[in-house]
Amino acid sequence: MTSIDKRQFIITSAILVLGILLSFIPFFPMVYEMLITVTFLILLYLCFVNLPISNMRHNFHYSPPFKTAVIINFVLVPLLAGGVGYIFLPNYPELWLAFIILMVIPSMDGNVPFTKYVSGNVDFSLALIPIHLTLQLILVPLYLILLTGKHITFDDNLLVLWILCIISVPLAAALITKRIAYNLGEDHKLRIEMSNRVPFLIKLFFNLGILFFFLNHGHLVASYTVDLILFLFCIFIFIIMMYMITKMICLFLRCDYKDKASLVVSVITRDSPIALFIAISSFPPLVGMAVAIGYISQFPLLRLLLNRMH
């Protein structure tokens, strides 16, 4: 875990607070909307460029822990998220939607620094990323419809089309980039330079996206403070429950420490930029605001729980 990774919570929290404070100064909302969209498209492109797609054919080498991670993330996690939302957020439909978006979309590559932090199996975590991406593209619209459709009104077909559009454009551009990089060869100076800079650029554009969003909508936070506290409580309850359940599953499977650490990290880390972009671009401001604040606020709890893994 790099020094920037360790300070990510502090840096992003400071940017979020700055955005909220500056949001009370009137600027140009339409400009911010455009900047938000462009920034997150670039962010997704960089994340896709950084994905180890070539590892996909070797993924099942890690079964059964690998298959267990997929089943937990795409079966058990959505069921528990729907249950927590049903219990605590039935009167807050937009927060319920935000909770489902944040919880059912697993991390892309954000879990790798945490895996290194707990000395887990990094290859295991890298192998999960392409499968997570593929399955979330297929299943996330279905989760949103099944777990929130009766409580929140939105056009199902339009939602699916929009999600596919906002993901397919940066994904296609990233695949082209990776193909060009592959043709250049592993030792080419441009390819090495790109691989070194992409992780930093991901963090830069993520923080810019947060800043632009809260410059546009941060003034609403004061109106929903109590609601957002309840939302954060649901996130903490969910992460703690999944941490305990996953550790029990690892005990049952008799996983070694490295695989157990990687499995736990893959389940409790909910920091996908896809979730953030879907919430910000497809739904009312409260949904995006809740997902962004929840996204950032989970990191201290993750560090606390993962410290117990050592």
| Radius of gyration, taken over Cα atoms and rounded to an integer in Å | 19 Å
Q: In total, how many domains does the architecture comprise?
A: 1
User: What is the CATH C-level name?
Assistant: Mainly Alpha
Mean pLDDT: 84
Helical content stands at over 70%
Label the overall shape.
globular
Strand percentage: under 5%
Largest sheet: none
Structural class: mainly alpha
Q: Quote the distance from N terminus to C terminus.
A: 15 Å
One letter per element, helices H and strands E, the order comes to: HHHHHHHHHHHHH
The number of strands is: 0
**Count, helices:** 13
Assembly level: single chain
Return the CATH topology: Na+/H+ antiporter like fold
Please state the second-level CATH architecture. Answer: Up-down Bundle
Unreliable stretches: none
How would you portray this structure in words?
42% of the residues are buried. This protein has helices spanning 3-6, 8-22, 29-49, 65-88, 93-104, 111-117, 122-148, 156-184, 189-217, 225-253, 257-268, 273-282, 285-307. The chain is globular, with a radius of gyration of 19 Å. It has 13 helices and no strands. It has one domain: Na+/H+ antiporter like fold. By secondary structure, the protein is mainly alpha-helical. The mean pLDDT is 84. 78% of the residues lie in helices and 0% in strands. Helix 2 runs antiparallel to helix 13 and helix 10 (225-253) runs antiparallel to helix 11 (257-268).
